[in-house]
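Long-time lurker, first post. I've been practising inverse folding by hand and with some scripts of my own, and I keep getting stuck on stretches where the structure tokens seem ambiguous. Below is the full token string for one chain I'm working on. Before anyone asks, I'm not after the true native sequence, just a reasonable design that respects the backbone. If someone could post their per-position residues I'd love to compare against what I wrote down in my notebook.
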């Protein structure tokens, strides 16, 4: 079946008003409210929610309802990402015995999982979802809101799409899938006449030697990628891109995570070498398994590092692992860091959005 053209909403932003852009909330209402507070969001601002506000987190329904409430004020606009199109569940109710049920059992959290639990349906034990999908009409208000959302938002100087777009055809000639299912969009080499703002692909995955969750801004090609890995990464953050007004390119951002802030007591030089083992390329060989740390070799590159044993997925010699790095952060006494992990060797911390190890004392 040929996918229909994407739906596009045009916005004419009023002069002098800030435009905030947030993507990939993934059902994490704490992070969403936290970054809005840090950015000092007010009714005077515009807010663009650049897709994937659902799935993977534990508060999808509550997050959706909060977005619906914000949208009533007329200054908040959301678009659908690849994780948001659950209104289509009613069109594919016959698939309840197959892919959908397997997916929900594997994920065991997310929008539909929350709704079925509220309806008293145990997705781990029912033989089929088909008889229960009509019960979801109890949430028609929420599904109607999702159904009403566009696949992209366009304006004079900025285009907002979840994952990417092609520079070779008009925005409304794309399909929804072409706008919300592009990985590594910034690696394709595309350039645009006006700014294209995307989420979808966590920006940390673009790095190989270190981990940075801050928005990536390519001024030459006019692309901004803002997914900070909220929910998906243990050290992730939720970014809010701040555009001062519709004709400005003086971008800034706010970033929220819940990690405690501490102060570094001694200087630390950067490590001489490092590597970032990340999603999609995380297979390692366990050379020596320890209680707290295990010595591992990255299968593809041969790079060796000590990895927290709890990050290893299985007890096998060859296994996948959680995203990890041995990057040693360059720090000065007095620097503020956010503590992600505490262990016998030191601290895994974030400093200005960059994650790495600190081996001194903190106050």
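-- Answer (accepted) --
I ran through it position by position. Result:
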């Amino acid at each position: 079946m040929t996918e229909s053209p994407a739906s596009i909403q045009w916005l004419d932003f009023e002069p002098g008003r800030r435009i905030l852009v947030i993507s990939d909330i993934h059902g994490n209402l704490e992070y969403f409210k936290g970054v809005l507070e840090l950015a000092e969001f007010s009714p005077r601002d515009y807010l663009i929610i650049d897709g994937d506000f659902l799935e993977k987190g534990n508060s999808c329904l509550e997050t959706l309802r909060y977005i619906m409430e914000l949208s009533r004020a007329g200054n908040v606009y959301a678009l659908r990402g690849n994780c948001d199109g659950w209104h289509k569940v009613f069109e594919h109710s016959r698939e309840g015995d197959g892919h959908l049920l397997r997916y929900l059992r594997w994920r065991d959290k997310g929008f539909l999982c929350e709704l079925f639990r509220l309806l008293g349906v145990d997705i781990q034990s029912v033989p089929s979802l088909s008889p229960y999908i009509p019960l979801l009409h109890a949430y028609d208000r929420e599904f109607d809101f999702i159904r009403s959302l566009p696949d992209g938002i366009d304006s004079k100087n900025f285009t907002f799409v979840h994952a990417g777009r092609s520079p070779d055809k008009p925005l409304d000639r794309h399909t929804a899938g072409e706008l919300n299912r592009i990985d590594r969009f910034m690696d394709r080499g595309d350039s645009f006449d006006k700014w294209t703002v995307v989420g979808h692909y966590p920006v940390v995955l673009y790095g190989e030697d270190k981990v940075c969750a801050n928005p990536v801004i390519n001024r030459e090609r006019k692309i901004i990628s803002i997914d900070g890995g909220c929910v998906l990464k243990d050290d992730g953050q939720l970014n809010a891109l701040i555009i001062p007004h519709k004709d400005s390119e003086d971008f800034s951002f706010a970033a929220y995570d819940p990690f405690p802030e501490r102060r570094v007591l001694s200087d630390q030089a950067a490590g001489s070498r490092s590597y970032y083992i990340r999603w999609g390329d995380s297979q390692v060989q366990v050379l020596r398994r320890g209680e707290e740390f295990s010595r591992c070799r990255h299968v593809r590159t041969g790079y060796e590092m000590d990895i927290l044993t709890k990050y290893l997925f299985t007890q096998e010699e060859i296994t996948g692992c959680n995203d990890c790095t041995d990057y040693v952060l360059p720090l000065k006494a007095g620097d503020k860091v956010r503590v992600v992990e505490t262990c016998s060797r030191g601290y895994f911390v974030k400093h200005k959005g960059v994650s790495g190890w600190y081996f001194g004392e903190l106050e």
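A couple of notes from the structure itself: The chain has six helices and 22 strands. The CA atoms of residues 54 and 84 lie 6 Å apart. Happy to go over any region you disagree with.
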